[in-house]
């Protein structure tokens, strides 16, 4: 997943980076930085574990929402 895909999905859901971090249960400043870095570092910053799974699910939901619109 590219940073552009993450940003597009986040914007399609009407979420800020902070709201996405909260939705993924990435708490505190580290969580906000995680989302910000993932959108801005050209894919160099890797998210692992449950957050990665959650982001993939959010992206899939975004794609399905666009298909049904």
Which terms summarize this structure?
69 residues, mainly alpha, 4 helices
Structure description:
The chain is globular. The chain has helices spanning 3-12, 17-23, 28-40, 49-68. The longest helix has 20 residues, at 49-68. With 69 residues, the chain is an all-alpha fold.
- The end-to-end span amounts to 22 Å
Helix content: over 70%
Structural class call reads mainly alpha
As a percent range, the share of strand residues is: under 5%
Give me the number of helical elements: 4
Overall pLDDT: 75
The biggest beta sheet is recorded as: none
- From the spread of the alpha carbons, the general shape counts as globular
Specify the oligomeric state: single chain
Number of strands: 0
The stretches of 5 or more residues where confidence is low (pLDDT under 50) are: none
Order of helices and strands: HHHH
**What is the CA-based Rg, rounded?**
11 Å
Structural topology:
Elements: H1 3-12, H2 17-23, H3 28-40, H4 49-68
Helix pairs in contact: 1-4, 2-3
Q: What's the quick description here?
A:
With 69 residues, this protein is mainly alpha-helical. 72% of the residues lie in helices and 0% in strands.
């Amino acid at each position: 997943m590219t940073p552009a895909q993450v940003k597009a999905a986040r914007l399609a859901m009407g979420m800020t980076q902070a709201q996405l971090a909260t939705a993924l249960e990435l708490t505190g400043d580290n969580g906000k930085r995680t989302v910000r870095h993932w959108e801005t570092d050209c894919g160099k910053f890797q998210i692992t574990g449950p957050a990665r799974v959650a982001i993939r699910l959010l992206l899939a939901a975004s794609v399905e929402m666009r298909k049904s619109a």
